[in-house]
Specification:
Blueprint lengths: L21 E5 L8 H14 L4 E5 L5 H5 L11 H6 L4 H4 L1 E2 L5 E4 L8 H4 L9 H6 L10 E5 L6 H9 L2 E7 L8 H14 L5 E8 L6 H14 L12 H5 L7 H4 L4 H17 L8
Parallel strand pairs: 1-5, 1-6, 2-4, 2-5, 6-7
Antiparallel strand pairs: 3-4
This protein binds adenosine-5'-diphosphate and magnesium ion.
Adenosine-5'-diphosphate binds next to α1 and α10.
């Protein structure tokens, strides 16, 4: 086997078998808006609260794999094998150095997947079908999918496999442009391929409080999408941009930094949204 570390998935401490995991695709067809940063740090923050998380790197650039410190030589088998070779998640998932967090890396072959998928049977359902192979004893409560910056077949696979979509929106001019295209794609996927898909939420990223434009974009987004925009805003923070070169999520690179703290709050907000506390009837 070419992968030096196969079958090393974390096991649930309780040993309990789980239901289907909660699958969240992080998507926006624009590049550089914070998808990968959000996927890595959300996955890490969820793991830190005791969730068992599988992060799938669906972007041929492999930034999520790099950001989690997966060495190149360990990336021989990953998401491509899942999509095109019928591999099972447990055969290709790697243990990351973050407790409770496994990762399916983007191998070099993934760059060709967008084209190869075109002539493949059930081409939009490949990731969904692969995740359906997670047996009853898998440890995961969450699967986070880091989508590439396009609306091609790779992203479609992410949206079809997911229960919900989390959309990072960069606080800059033109941020809302293009988002209507993404919303139309989500609607189209719901109509034709995955009726259960929900918009998980929109997270404002790279917010710069010294820049009025950030406030304007945030106000616009909240005016348009209302409570679908997370209360938590991710600030522009140098520690976030430094952390990938150390192969670490910012939460481990500098726990006290505003960026790390924001991602911890984002994870808490996501957990609240996904598992609302029962309210006492008055
Ligand atoms: N909140 C932030 N503050 C500072 N830099 C950030 C922040 N979020 C992302 N970055 C940096 O911006 C670049 C693009 O982010 P990334 O998450 O890779 O976007 P995408 O996956 O959407 O292309 C990366 O270099 C990343 O380190
Ligand atoms: Mg990315």
């Amino acid at each position: 086997m070419s992968d030096p570390r196969p079958n090393q998935t974390n096991s649930s401490p309780s040993g309990a078998s789980r239901q289907k995991p909660n699958i969240v695709a992080v998507a926006n067809q624009k590049g550089g808006v914070g998808k990968t940063t959000t996927a890595i740090n959300l996955a890490t923050a969820l793991s830190a609260t005791g969730e068992h998380v599988l992060l799938i790197d669906l972007d041929p650039q492999g930034n999520a794999s790099t950001g989690l410190g997966v060495p190149r030589e360990d990336r021989a088998t990953g998401t491509y094998a899942l999509l095109l070779d019928g591999a099972s998640p447990k055969d290709v998932a790697l243990t990351s150095f973050v407790p409770n967090l496994d990762v399916i890396a983007a191998e070099p072959d993934l760059a060709g997947a967008e084209i190869e998928l075109v002539s493949t049977e059930r081409r939009e359902y490949r990731l969904r079908d692969a995740l359906a192979q997670l047996g009853p004893d898998h440890p995961y409560s969450f699967v986070i999918i880091d989508c590439p910056p396009s609306l091609g077949l790779l992203t479609l696979n992410g949206l079809v496999a997911a229960d919900s979509v989390l959309v990072p929106l960069q606080c800059e001019f033109f941020a809302l442009e293009g988002i209507s295209q993404l919303m139309r794609t989500i609607e189209r996927v719901k109509r034709a391929l995955n009726p259960a898909l929900r918009l998980q939420g929109i997270v404002l990223t790279m917010f710069d409080r010294r820049n009025n434009l950030s406030d304007l974009v945030a106000a616009d987004a909240r005016g348009f999408f209302g409570t679908q925009v997370y209360d938590t805003v991710i600030p522009r923070n140098i520690r976030i941009s430094e952390s990938p070169s150390h192969g670490k999520p910012v939460i481990l690179y500098d726990f006290r930094s505003p960026g790390a703290q924001a991602y911890i709050r984002l994870a808490q907000e996501l957990l609240q949204r996904e598992r609302p506390q029962p309210v006492n009837a008055a």
